[in-house]
Each structure stands twice: as structure tokens, then as C-alpha cells.
Design brief:
- The protein is mainly alpha-helical.
- The chain has one domain: Protein-Tyrosine Phosphatase, Chain A (Alpha-Beta Complex).
- The chain contains 3 helices and 2 strands; from the N terminus they run βαβαα.
């Protein structure tokens, strides 16, 4: 699974939560990032929450860039809010 991120420029891993299941020991965002990096990816890191992602992405994104949100739970809400939050964060920087 971790190799599927090899062609991504950047990989940000949000906290991993069990979806109504018992947590699996040793399965968390840090473990996933370590696995991605062990396969040679240089730009993988964990993020704390959606706001952390916005602070990272706002100064980095350029026209034509693609942000792909994958996961379960509220990741769909993250994706829906991301464009407006990025615009608001960029407005703070330029103000």
C-alpha cells in the first residue's frame, strides 16, 4: 500500500482513527509515513489536523496543482472545506 504514493510530490498523513472498530496496534499516521519514507519518498509527513494541513499547503500550492484527499470518516468534509480555507489562509498572508 505504501508504494502507491511514490509518484506524489508531497504526502501528508492525517491522524488515523478506527471507524467503529478496535484500533490496530502499531497502525497510525507515523507508522504509515515511516513506511512511505522507507520506500524512498522524501516528502511524507504527518499532520495534526485540517488546520495544520491548510497552514502547510497555502504557501506551497500553485495554479494547476492537485490536492487529493483519501481516507474514511470526515476526510470528505476536509476536502469540501479545503478550497475556502486555503483562500482564507492566503488572504491572511497577503494582508
Amino acid at each position: 500500500f505504501q508504494a502507491c504514493f511514490n509518484e506524489a510530490d508531497q504526502v501528508y498523513v492525517a491522524p488515523v482513527y478506527a471507524a467503529g472498530e478496535d484500533p490496530v496496534a502499531g497502525v497510525d499516521g507515523g507508522t504509515l509515513v515511516d513506511g512511505i519514507k522507507s520506500l524512498g519518498h522524501r516528502h511524507a509527513q504527518t499532520i495534526e489536523d485540517r488546520e495544520h494541513l491548510v497552514r502547510i499547503l497555502a504557501p506551497e500550492l500553485e495554479p494547476g496543482d492537485l490536492v487529493l484527499c483519501l481516507g474514511a470518516g470526515d476526510i470528505t468534509k476536509w476536502a469540501a472545506k479545503l478550497p475556502d480555507e486555503l483562500q482564507a489562509e492566503r488572504s491572511k498572508v497577503t494582508a
